[in-house]
Specification:
Blueprint lengths: L2 E6 L5 E14 L4 E7 L3 E6 L2 E5 L3 H15 L5 E6 L4 H6 L7 E6 L2 H10 L1 H4 L7 E5 L2 H8 L5 E7 L13 H9 L1 E10 L7 H14 L2 E8 L7 E8 L26 H6 L5 H6 L2
Parallel strand pairs: 6-7, 6-9, 7-8, 9-10
Antiparallel strand pairs: 1-2, 2-3, 3-4, 4-5, 10-12, 11-12
Helix pairs in contact: 5-6, 6-7
Length: 281
Amino acid sequence: MEAWFFENQTGNFGIKIRIEKILHHEYSNFQEITVYDTFEFGRMLVLDQAIMFTDKNEFIYHEMLGLVPLFSHKNPERILIIGGGDGGVIRECLKNPFVEHIDLVEIDKRVVDVSKEFFPEIACGLKDRRVEVIADDGIEFLKRVESSGRYDAILIDSTDPVGPAEGLFKRDFYESAERALKDDGIFAAQTESPFFNKNLIRDINKIIKDIYEKPSIYYAMIPVYPSGLWSFTIGSKKYQPQNINESYKGFDFTSLSLKYYSPEIHASSFILPNFVKEICK
């Protein structure tokens, strides 16, 4: 008998993926955690019945959330990542030559542990000496450090805006993040599908425009996410996010073994379809 995983991505639309076996299942203190082995995409991490990533295409999301903001910044030495306990965004951030320290704040330590066990190639950066993993609520952590201005970049690698992640999509949280950034800091977050989350993207875009000198939206194509078209919202205090910073002039991007991101993709990801431009007006 065939086994399939179904994710209802809206009330009228969903995705199904054929499952070879269930490798892990548990209920942590915060959410349901499942690791599947799939025929089409390899291993797949699912939290509360929502797909986080698969082996076959995880690099798209992780490269685009991690590398676009960092290569826009002149010298991103200190990074804060909220969420992302799987370590994928950390792996990508560590490819930037200026990075000296990364704080990863993950509310659910079990996501970190499960990722290390079942996704070692994604979680490999978690053992880097420059990385500190902090088991904490990202909202509360930011409240404690918001007046410090200690970070060059803050990246929000959250799940969908429900449950523990709901507060990561609120104005108060974005304002706290801005205060925790240095004077030339940059902020980026995943902000869902332009097809199914128009109001959310519109609201977040307005907030980021209020807070940052240089706000923008960019996107990537991610096959297992709702609609495949996925948005990221970015705010910069100084640097133009659409451009790779001049400090990387002569840098050999081919040395990074990238599968999706490139200088050309960096620039083109900000060229938005007209219907997305309408959302952001």
